[in-house]
Design brief:
The structure holds two protein chains of two kinds.
Chain A (H helix, E strand, L loop, with lengths): L8 H8 L4 E3 L7 E3 H23 L8 H20 L8 H17 L5 H10 L14 H34 L9 H38 L6 H41 L3
Antiparallel strand pairs in A: 1-2
Helix pairs in contact in A: 2-4, 3-4, 4-8, 6-7, 6-8, 7-8
Chain B lengths: L5 H131 L9 H10 L1
The chains are: A mainly alpha, B mainly alpha.
Chain lengths: 269, 156
Amino acid sequence: MAAESQLTPTEYIGHHLTNFTASVGQGSFWTLNLDSVVMGAILGVVGLGLIWWIARGATTGVPTKRQALVELLFSFIDDQVKGIFHGDRHNFVAPTALSVFVWVLLMNAMDFLPVDIFSAFYEGVLHLHYWRQVPTTDVNTTFALSISVLLLSIYFSIKVKGLGGWIHELFCAPFGGHPLVWPANFLFNLVEYVSKPLSHSLRLYGNIYAGEIIFLLLWLWAATGLAGTVFGAILGVGWAIFHILIVVLQAFIFMMLTVVYISMAHESH
Amino acid sequence: MNINLTLIAQAVSFAIFIWFTVKFVWPPMLRAIEARQKQIADGLAAAEQGRSALEQSHKQAEVTVNDARGRAADIVAQAEKRASQIIEEAKNAARAEGEREKAAAQAEIEQEASRAREQLREQVAGLAVAGAEKILRREIDARSHVDLLDAIKKQL
């Protein structure tokens, strides 16, 4: 599969891990990884649009097969949210969980696309030399999600307990309201607020990124000849099958943590 | 892996997708599922109601049938009684009629017999008179011996 057999392995892997960027200003911050943004947008629009299209034609009578599939997903997520969040989940939390799950699942699932065949397509047809097709292997994407969830949880925290309540909680939980433990409480909460989005995003990023790297390493077998190609293909199939589990599991974990963080924000200590 | 503007772009996408799902995807699905759940619950309740109504009407029907059966038995018994009564009456009437007919017939027979006897008597008397006349033509004058002839006639 390695069309770039003249490249060294490092160059081959490096090529597949380089984003297609567009600079919109001065400095390294003002660059946009167009591949992550475009792939993410396409996947979100396709996935959620498909569900929207089916939900719009939903009948209360005997459901069609595709409606049954969407309802299965719907009830699965609704059940998960129901177990964690005790409030009116239909307003915000459950739909958010659905959109997170669908979007992350689809972005993770891009890992299954054979990277070299698609590279040939991007290069040959779209004239894009660099194009990473898995948005969740871009740390920007996962941080965007986890920081959004953090902001949402702060928003709900303030909305439910009021600004005073939230600040009170920052200083008086979990060790108690005595002024001597205020710094400890605040430090504790600060660590929590930093570690939550970090672990939330890096867990997803790490799993999918590692999966991507292992695929790339397996495809390197193809550079060794026909036997290597066959062997690499067999290993690749094995890894892909195992990766189905990782892709779905990571999407599920990401969704569950999103729901947990948002519902934790609703509870006062 | 350097943090750049992509983060904000993806966060915006995420916000849009959440808004879209909250606004357009979740509500129709929820409505459809809840409506179906309600329909099913209603259906089950209706079925339960129907079942109890059926049971009720079974009981009602049983009561009605038992009632009807009892009344039918009554009517049959009554009819049988009436029939035997009618038969008895008819028998009695027939017997009485027969008696009456017999009596009438007997009376007629007796009447006929007495009339026949009377006729016979008159004919015999006539024959006797005629015979006597023939025998005693010359010796007996009908006019002068009328009382004698009457006496004979009576004796016959």
